[in-house]
Design brief:
AB_hydrolase_1; alpha/beta; AB_hydrolase_fold; Sigma factor SigB regulation protein RsbQ; Rossmann fold; globular; seven-stranded mixed β-sheet
Length: about 280
């Protein structure tokens, strides 16, 4: 085990199962956002939690402006962790931009993953009419970047409210805001630029790993049209529309999130068992 990588990404292992589940945070978040989900799976799986470099309790000295100027740098973090832990056929669960980071990691090393679970994913946040509606105009993203630079605390307050879009759960909004505010504004802005200006639409068709897409209801960040687009262009994928609203169901609706992931993995196990039995006959 490469302890340098373990320390760099603040990798933590829990659970007692044979198969591993990697929980990848979304933009501006650390591994603590997975608390409820991790606890629900730890009896049946080995849980791998980590922080991207620059976030949470990662090694800030390892942050490199060039490496993390694109999602490829964050995907390399995931690949490094998988290599350090000698993983094979792990379930990758990514939230938001973490989903596309998992996609990129799987393109380089599909052997590390048995399944991808994408919660509120988006391959491109910018509208590209007439055939693609990502949810944002370029001017809106540029305005977001400008606000991050001029008034980071104000941005954190507004953006956390937009992301959660759930007045009934002010606690989730506050948790997100606190995580945003605990991050270096320069690092957060660069990650935002890498995420919101990325276009991974052409990568979807190359994915070889079976995938589950969890699409929230009334999600401002990743609208329903995006979830449908991914399902149409991602081979061997399943789309589930959640009752959960907003963009962070793993925090606001962990029970439904866990239930849908478990249901998908159980069905995949049954299908694999039937296929194996068929090969033996």
């Amino acid at each position: 085990m490469d302890q340098d990588i373990i320390l760099r990404n603040n990798v933590n292992l829990t659970g007692s199962g044979k198969q591993s589940i990697i929980l990848a945070p979304g933009f501006g978040c650390d591994q603590t956002v997975w608390k409820s989900v991790a606890e629900a799976f730890q009896k049946d799986y080995r849980i791998i939690l980590f922080d991207y470099v620059g976030f949470g309790r990662s090694d800030l000295s390892a942050y490199d402006l060039q490496r993390y100027s694109s999602l490829a740098g964050y995907a390399q973090d995931v690949i490094d962790i998988c290599s350090a832990l000698d993983l094979k056929d792990a379930v990758f669960v990514g939230h938001s931009v973490g989903s596309m980071i998992g996609v990129l990691a799987s393109l380089s090393h599909p052997e590390y993953f048995s399944h991808l679970v994408m919660i509120g994913p988006s391959p491109c946040y910018l509208n590209d009419p007439p055939h693609y509606f990502g949810g944002f105009q370029k001017e809106e993203i540029l305005g977001l970047m400008d606000m991050m630079e001029k008034n980071y605390i104000g941005w954190a307050n507004v953006f956390s409210s937009t992301v959660t879009n759930n007045p009934e759960r002010p606690d989730v909004k506050l948790q997100l805001e606190e995580r945003f505010c605990s991050t270096d504004p320069i690092i957060a802005r660069q990650f935002a630029e890498a995420a919101f200006f990325a276009d991974n639409r052409s990568d979807l068709k190359k994915v070889k790993v079976p995938s589950l897409i969890l699409q929230c209801s009334n999600d401002i960040i990743a609208p329903l049209t995006v979830g449908e687009y991914i399902q149409q262009h991602l081979p061997n994928s399943v789309l589930k529309i959640m009752e959960a609203t907003g963009h962070c169901p793993h925090m606001s609706h962990p029970e439904e999130t866990v239930r849908l992931i478990r249901q998908y993995l159980n069905e995949a196990t049954i299908e694999a068992s039937l296929a194996l039995r068929g090969d033996r006959l």
